[in-house]
Every structure is written in C-alpha cells, then in structure tokens.
Amino acid sequence: MIGFNEVLETNAMISQEKLDVRTITMGISLLDCCDSDLSRMNRRIYEKITRLAGDIVSVGDEIGLEYGVPVVNKRVSVTPVALIGGSACRTEEDFVEIARTLDSAAEDIGINFIGGYSALVQKHMTRADRLLMMSVPKALSCTERVCSSVCVGSTRVGINMDAVRMMGDIIRETSAMTADRQSLGCAKLVVLCNPPDDNPFVAGAFHGVTEGDAVINVGVSGPGVVKTAVSKVRGESFEVLCETVKKTAFKVTRVGQLVAKEASRRLNVPFGIVDLSLAPTPAVGDSIADILHEMGLEKAGAPGTTAALAILNDQVKKGGVMASSYVGGLSGAFIPVSEDSSMIDAVVSGALTLEKLEAMTCVCSVGLDMIAVPGDTCAETLAGIVVDEMAIGMVNQKTTAVRIIPVAGMKEGDTAEFGGLLGSAPVMKVNGFGCADFVNRGGRIPAPIHSFKN
Amino acid sequence: MNRTIITLVGKDHVGIIAAVCNYLAENNINILDIAQTTVQEYINMMMIVDIEGYGKSFGDLCHGLGEVGESVGCSIKAQHEDIFDKMHRI
C-alpha cells in the first residue's frame, strides 16, 4: 500500500518542483502518402495526420487529469518530407505547399508544433533534398507550427560540407524572412549530426524510415525535481551526488513510462520509447543551470561546468534506463540558452560564452541550442559554427545539433524575445575571425576511423 | 478494484473530513485507508479509495471533490494510484 510520505513526495514534485511530462509525440509515417500529384498527396497527408492524431490532445489532457501530472505538449512528427515529396514536387514552392498542409493539420488537431519538414543529407543530396532545403526559409516564415531539421553529418558517413555551407545561407535567409518576429523562424530550424529516428522533442523531431506506421514517443522532464534532490546533499561526496541524481531520474522516468503506455493504449498506437531528457523551460525553478549551481558552481560556465554536466547527463541515463523498458530519443540534459532562465543569467553576467557552450555540448544530450547571435553574423561563420558542432557529434558518436538564431537588426548585448516555451535570448558574442576559405572548400569530410566497425 | 488517492491540504477546522466522507458515501466510493497530520493550523490528509462503484467519469470526480474543497476552504486532488505505485515501487 502506498504511504503518506510517498504521496506527499510525488505531489511536491508536481506542484512545487514542476515535474511534468514534456511531450507526447506521435510519430506518423507518410511514406504511403507519396503521389505524383501534389494536391492528392497533400490531401492524403492531411487525412492521415488528422485521422491518427485527431485525439492526441484530448487523450493527453485526460491522462494529465487522471494522474495529476501535467502533460505539457502534444505533438506530431512525420517522415522527413524530402523523402516523400520527390515525385510530386518540382519547385521549392511545391514543398512549401506540403509545409502548409502540415501546418493546417497541426492546427486542426490542436497541437503547437509538428516536426519532420526535414532532409537527411549526411552523405549526398537528391534533387528533392536540395529543393526542400532551399524552401525552408519560406516554409518557416509562412507557417506557425512546422519545424524543420536537416541532418548534415553522421559518424558512419562523415559530414556533407556542401550541405553545411548551404545551411549557413539558409539560416541567414530564414532569419531575414522572419525579421519582423525577431527571426523566430530560426528557432524552428535545427541542423543535426547522428539524429535519432525516434526523438519526441521538436525542432529536431522526425519519424525515421525504420519506424512503423505510427508510434507514441514520450519525453519526460523535471530539472526542478533534480535540483531539489541535489540541494539536499550539499557538501556530500560525488558518490552521494551521483546516487541522488540517479534515483531521482528513475522516479521521473517511471512517470514518463506510465504516461507513454497509457497514451499508447488509449490512442491504439504502439509505444515506442521514453526519452529521458531534462528539458528546462523559462519558468523559474525549471532550469538545468540551477542544477549545475546546486552541484557547486557559482554560475553555469564556470570552470567545472563541463564535468558537472557530464555527471548529470550520465546519471540521468543510468537512473532512467532501469525505469523504462525502451529508452531512446535524445535522452540526457538539454542546454538551450533562451529556454532556461539561469542560463540566460549566466550569459548576461559573462560567465557563459559560446565557446564554453560548445565544450558543454560534448557531454550533454544535444548541442548548441536556442542561441541568439548578432544579425550581421555572416553565412560562412554560421556554417563554421555548425561544422564544429557536427564534428563533435561525428567523432564522439553522439547526436549534436545547432539551433542558432542570427537575430535580424540585433547586436551583442541585445535581447531577443521569442515568447512562450521558446523564451528570450541574450545576443551572444561570436568569434569574429573568418573561416570562409575553410567552409567554402566543398565536398565531404570523410567518416572518422572509428566508424569502420564491420 | 479501482484505487484512487485523494489528497487534501488546507487550514484545519471542524467538519473537513466529514464533508469529504459524506461526498464519497453519496457517490458510492469506498474508503480503503485514511491518514492525516495536522501541523500548526494546517491539515494534510490522504485517502486511498476504491472508485469501482462510482458511475461517473474521473473528470466528474475531480470536479465534485473540487466543489467540496471550495466549501471547506481546502484544496482537494484525486489521482489514480498508478502514478505513486510506478514511481515508488520497482
């Protein structure tokens, strides 16, 4: 029988420490929607998404009510659109039509984001991949809910430098086309290396080709819960610290597993994975930087930050894997600057720089996330930042990503306001030395030696 | 058996538990266990109940308990037992 203290502990996690299930994401395969006629394909896409995910919002809310734990977001990810649009799309505008279809399907089922306006070009690009990539600025400026991702590298095949270079221009163009909204389009665009097929978190979510027709993936969160637990072991050894984080991650993940199974049962869609991520929000007390502070750092970015984050990431995984039968997605700690109030504080106070963030991405679950840079940052420099991050992912056999926002008209020290979960971002200093001759070389960076495992 | 945990917190006064119990009895909900503590002027209560015989939806139960809570000046919450079970039992 459940004890009084256990009930109080769980409810304190929910009400005071902001424990929530961050997202129930339904992955939907659009491979069977392919058609040479664009309008027929769009109809099929709309019909399939609304048919399978029509109840995702009501089911998510129902589960939230019954267990008393908020299910914050309900989302959909689809097969990378570049893979399905090839035979119907002759122009960039044709791809934008698919983005509009995704946007209206998302609006009609009541979700805030839909991921999968994506291309996988880590080795080479097809004509469709190129068209989709070129259409991204327009697609993100004329839709509200569509998120785009482009995979430009992997440990297995190396890095497609032509694609990286293109992304420099595409990020700039997306920024310019959404200049009236503080370049918000770039907050919905992510460049990836080694992306997982089952990531439930936008903007990098897409439904991989190895997945089934539909799947339910759930992303848990709970930085506040971990922070509170860590605050109770101040001054204790690393052994005690690690054990504390691990136990807490176990509890948080169990809630995710429960919600995932329930959502899968009620929506009649197979359960995929639980993503054990600590995902912050701009709300006070829902911060990764606060955990790092609680571990003993004056501010995120101080010497020791990379080690602290490495411990946190590792213990979250160790606790989480035992709590769930299937773990996947990104699983680890996210460090998005704009979505974490104490990370913003660390940047504003000068404790955290872009270079330190890059070092932190070697040990966190993703990469350079939600980072605002001056609006005049050139495409070559953006490509340089992207390829550095891709190299970290490729060599370390991990997912890395770049979601960077050159905010039109802003300079270092200004603040961009994106609103809602996306938060606000201080515009960070970018190293002004050039890299154009390097990123303009073209071609591919070969796969690293440790990729040859056969 | 469909076990649900009801928790209540608020300023203590005469009749709080009575009001909750009356509501449960009227709605054919059986109380399996009950525990409470009072710290200074505040009451903290937990009940394990069986809602098998309750004919309405879980949302109705939350709403009904919410109304009872309002009438006695306390916050009352109902949650399926599973969330506690999964979190605290391997």
Write the layout of secondary structure elements.
The complex is a heterodimer of chains A (454) and B (90).
Chain A: H1 4-15, E1 21-28, H2 38-53, H3 56-67, E2 71-78, H4 81-85, H5 92-109, E3 114-120, H6 127-142, E4 146-154, E5 158-160, H7 161-177, E6 189-193, E7 214-220, H8 223-231, H9 238-267, E8 271-275, H10 288-295, H11 305-323, H12 341-348, H13 354-360, E9 368-374, H14 379-396, E10 400-407, E11 415-417, E12 424-426, H15 436-439, E13 444-445
Parallel strand pairs in A: 1-2, 2-3, 3-4, 4-6, 7-8, 9-10
Antiparallel strand pairs in A: 1-7, 4-5, 5-13, 6-10, 11-12
Helix pairs in contact in A: 2-5, 3-9, 5-6, 6-7, 7-14, 8-9, 8-10, 9-11
Chain B: E1 3-11, H1 16-26, E2 30-39, E3 42-50, H2 58-72, E4 74-80, H3 82-88
Antiparallel strand pairs in B: 1-3, 1-4, 2-3
Q: Which parts of chain A are unreliable, with pLDDT below 50 for 5 consecutive residues or more?
A: none
What fold name stands as the CATH topology of the largest domain in chain A?
Anaerobic Ribonucleotide-triphosphate Reductase Large Chain
CATH class category of the largest domain in chain A: Alpha Beta
Classified by CATH, the class of chain B is Alpha Beta
Properties at a glance:
heterodimer, A: 454 residues, alpha/beta, eleven-stranded mixed sheet, 15 helices, globular, B: alpha+beta, four-stranded antiparallel sheet, 3 helices, 4 strands
